[in-house]
Amino acid sequence: MVGYLLPHPPVLIPEIGRGEEKKCQATLDALEKIADEIAEYKPEVIVIISPHAPVFSDAFFLNDKPEIGGSLARWGVYGIEFRFKNNLEIVQDIAKMCSQEGLTVGFVSDKIQKRYGVSRELDHGALVPLYFITKKYKDFELIHTSYCMLDDIKLYKYGMILRRAIEKHAKKGLIIASGDLSHKLSYDGPYGFAKEGPEFDRLLVELLQSSNTRALYDIDPVLSEKAAECGFRSIKVLLGAFEGYSIESKVYSYEGPFGVGYCVAAFYQKEQTSSSLFEEIVKKREERLKRIRENEDEYIRLARESLEYYVRHRRYLDYIPDYVTERMLKERAGVFVSIKKDGNLRGCIGTIFPTQENIAKEIIRNAVAAGFHDPRFEEVTEDELDSLVYDVDILSPPEKVNSISELDPKKYGVIVRKGARQGLLLPDLEGVDTVEEQLKIACRKAGIDYESGDFEIERFTVERHK
């Protein structure tokens, strides 16, 4: 098995870049070398994992069109089209194996495509790598898929399934993880700068240069999120295809001329190994969650146990645990409960003012609401409970703000009001660094026009338990 990490900025294609692509000469040279390698390897099936194909929260998109195609017309380039035969037998086996392993595959029918505008045409995450590959080699079937927003274990398992399905049909396969690295490398780039951008790229490239692919799973998910990358999950799926083997990784190039990191790297299968990276990932996750559980305070523990009780019994916790403090029983306050799963928000519901007789009962109610009544998410299920992490915010009474100079997104949460419309944003949220960003998000949640400036502002502090 061979795999590659390939970037996908359309500017790399000369017909689109019109000279700008020359600023990425190291990337272009590396892509040409990779195309030569692929032509020599002669794969019968290429799987491309694209972050710009349809991405679902809990299902892996899999393209089931008999023929998969796309063009450069959206970039004003006409006459360059791509058409590839899909291997539907392998696609069907991937879906079947996923079902057996508890994973979900999402297909996009013609009806859904028309109704919701979700395309099964090749996206630029697939088109750009394929543009360079097909200049040297075209004799392959294509499987077009994406990652999803599930945890590392499921991403890795999906990669294992991709390989098993290809091998079942005795095909010579190759997997491409399409993805760019950080989109926040420079202030003059299209996405701005975050210090985590260069830090993430440096770390990932160093690990690939040293073939230390196991350590990729030790990278802090907060770091990758703040770096604003789009290729890390593609890599994690790709690595699953090498389960049971050691890997030699090789970086052909890395550069970021437009404020976005472009890395070209190869992954080569070496000898079989007795150690399982899959088991190692599972163990690390269990150890991390165990540490979190051991360090829970009374507020977090009550939120967790309240939701767990409701999931299992379909009724609210009908007793107050003995670890609940006197303060939680005597004081009243607004409370927000946030739930995360593998670093991603899974639900967040709260009350600005107290609605229950004490903080403890406020937590009980809002923990259940966060797991069951946040309209952005499906209801929490029992098999998820062991992987959930909780935050509890105790709110101070709101106070009116006369000037935005009285705001600080790290210290104060905000409430915006206009008539019956109201929007709230908690303080010290990842990615919310300025007062303007904070107010814009709060206004958007309330359906208030931020630019009009016609709204009232209140601020509050929180006592955060996490």
TrEMBL record:
The chain's coiled-coil residues are none
Which top-rank group of organisms is this from? Bacteria
What Pfam families does UniProt report for this protein, alphabetically? AMMECR1, LigB
One GO MF annotation is: ferrous iron binding
CDD domains, A to Z: ED_3B_N_AMMECR1
The segment(s) forming the AMMECR1 domain are 294-466
List the SUPFAM superfamilies hit by this protein, alphabetically.
AMMECR1-like, LigB-like
The record ties this protein, via InterPro entries, to: AMMECR1, AMMECR1_dom_sf, AMMECR1_domain, AMMECR1_N, AmmeMemoSam_A, Xdiol_dOase_suB
The name this protein goes by in its record: AMMECR1 domain protein
Q: Which organism is it from?
A: Caldicellulosiruptor kronotskyensis (strain DSM 18902 / VKM B-2412 / 2002)
